[in-house]
């Protein structure tokens, strides 16, 4: 049996290009004891793939998670028909021993069998009921440690993580201000997702926008983008403000030898006694399902909406990946095979 896969043909130079990938076929090996044959149903593209891939060897199968169905099994814990989330990369079929699967971050990552989501589609296992959802829930509650009545700013606010952070902020009784890169995204955030304010960072001055929306200052900042936007937000923060350093997509395509400069933030950090903490969602792997159960509960209660940009066709993995860097997506991008 053959599978299709995308390999990394070149290390990215600036903005990733379609020519950096190659779509190939691979013969799958027969199953050994302990092996499982998985068939991809939905695949994920995520910004971290850009950040991590520069350290990966050329020719490697592109890294990433997928929702896959068990088609054959020689492993006692996996039965035919189970749906799993596995770090199998950009490939349609995978033969692997689940106990030996390794993530794009080089860590052992056993595929997990998905519980019944009820009416929520399986694709949500890559978004609100998966890594981005847990990033939002744990990152906001454990790193920003918000208190009711405080003011939260979130960047990349219309994306997979940001759109959830803002809504969870509202559930926790915060004033929520989002920044996104298009007027229609901002309209969606305030009109559909309950944000108090949303500003287009491409057309609005960040400091002015915050003076208008947060005249009493910002307590929590969930930083998805880094760079000058983040410097401006930190300068508007209150004493003992907390910054969850989640991502820095504004710099992922930069030349590492000539990284972009942002205004210094040390004055704000010192004088306002801010706490900044970086994190990876995997730090909560031991309580992963608690996050999924919590977000599923919010969805069932009608408090948490999730947006997906679904792209059909495995062959479009590369295009889907590129679209995150041009801001074409709203919510989580998933590829339906
Ligand atoms: N620490 C962790 O464990 C995790 C971190 N992350 C990080 O969170 C961030 C968001 O990820 P995710 O929600 O999956 O992706 P998104 O769904 O938010 O997609 C990326 C979005 O980023 C915005 N963007 C792209 N380039 C820039 C730029 N130069 N400046 C500002 N915004 C930009 C675009 O929206 P727009 O139209 O608004 O510009 C784009 O739609 C990333 O930095 C990612 O690396 C994600 C998951 C886990
Ligand atoms: C797990 C994802 C990490 C980042 C930095 O995106």
Automatic annotation (TrEMBL):
Gene3D superfamilies from the UniProt entry: Medium-chain alcohol dehydrogenases, catalytic domain (3.90.180.10), NAD(P)-binding Rossmann-like Domain (3.40.50.720)
GO biological processes: prostaglandin metabolic process
Domain of life: Eukaryota
Residue span(s) of domain Enoyl reductase (ER): 14-335
Presence of keyword ATP-binding: no
Localization in the cell: Cytoplasm
Keyword set, alphabetical order: Acetylation, Cytoplasm, Fatty acid metabolism, Hydroxylation, Lipid metabolism, NADP, Oxidoreductase, Phosphoprotein, Prostaglandin metabolism
Gene Ontology CC, one term: cytoplasm
Reactions that this protein is recorded to catalyse: hexanal + NADP(+) = (E)-hex-2-enal + NADPH + H(+); nonan-2-one + NADP(+) = (3E)-nonen-2-one + NADPH + H(+); 13,14-dihydro-15-oxo-prostaglandin F1alpha + NADP(+) = 15-oxoprostaglandin F1alpha + NADPH + H(+); an n-alkanal + NADP(+) = an alk-2-enal + NADPH + H(+)
GO molecular function per UniProt: 15-oxoprostaglandin 13-reductase [NAD(P)+] activity; 2-alkenal reductase [NAD(P)H] activity
EC number(s) reported in the record: 1.3.1.48, 1.3.1.74
Top EC class, one word: oxidoreductase
CDD domains attached to this UniProt entry: leukotriene_B4_DH_like
PANTHER family hit by this protein: PROSTAGLANDIN REDUCTASE (PTHR43205), PROSTAGLANDIN REDUCTASE 1 (PTHR43205:SF7)
Family: Belongs to the NADP-dependent oxidoreductase L4BD family.
Subunit record text: Monomer or homodimer.
Name of this chain's protein: Prostaglandin reductase 1
Organism: Anasa tristis
